[in-house]
Amino acid sequence: MRTPVVMILGLVLAPSGYVLILTCIVAPAWRDVAGIPTAAVDEIHHQGLWEICKDEQSVRELSCNLNDDAYFNYRVIAIARGLMIASMVVSAAGILVTTVGVRCWTDEPSYPLSGVGGVILVAGGALTLIAVSWYTDRLQQIPNSAAGTRLTVGYAAVLGFVGGCLIVIAGIHLLFSFGKSCESKTPAEKKYYPKSSAYPAGRYPAGLSNPVAVIDLPQRSPPTPTPWDADL
């Protein structure tokens, strides 16, 4: 049996989104801080969930592990860390369940298991979207010890948003497996009656194209003699 297209899309989109959220969680580029009064004009601080890097573009020098207790102790950063870690774990579990459910190496996939994998993937992608959306919504309120005047969204947050959307879309595709499972459990009952000819085929000569019209006409009974014929 061919694997349904929705399952194939789910298997392709889910790992792609997982790679993006993995890059998002480790990259120090959720927020870019520029316009720092005490630094060079071209100096930019890339702030992530785990570290902060200083990028001096004129000399092409990147140094990380900068300390900023006010930034890392902010509540949104701590919650975003927890949500992203939970998203990684849940999404990995969803991909594993989906792979076992689809079973491309067998003739018949497990539709209920694939649907469960879709539910898990939707939850995992939603966790990433919540973390990224909350961070970007509070972008201006998160402490900025460098006193930069230009705060912009970094590429890591964009990758996280795209990755979360891909995982949610993959889960939605796999949710259609539940409908396929219901169809396989309750097939439509149809009764087929074979068409049988009204008369056996060997009864008629082969040369007659319409034997019923020629042979099976009602036979006319012979005329009965009138009562007075015997007296003549």
Automatic annotation (TrEMBL):
Keywords (A to Z) from UniProt: Cell junction, Cell membrane, Membrane, Tight junction, Transmembrane, Transmembrane helix
Transmembrane segments: 7-30, 76-101, 113-135, 155-176
Keyword set includes Ligase: no
Main location: other
Cellular compartments per GO CC: bicellular tight junction; plasma membrane
Cellular compartment(s): Cell junction, Tight junction; Cell membrane
Entries under Pfam families matching the protein: PMP22_Claudin
Membrane topology per record: Multi-pass membrane protein
Keyword Chloroplast: no
GO molecular-function term, one example from the UniProt record: structural molecule activity
Family named by the database record: Belongs to the claudin family.
Name assigned to this protein: Claudin
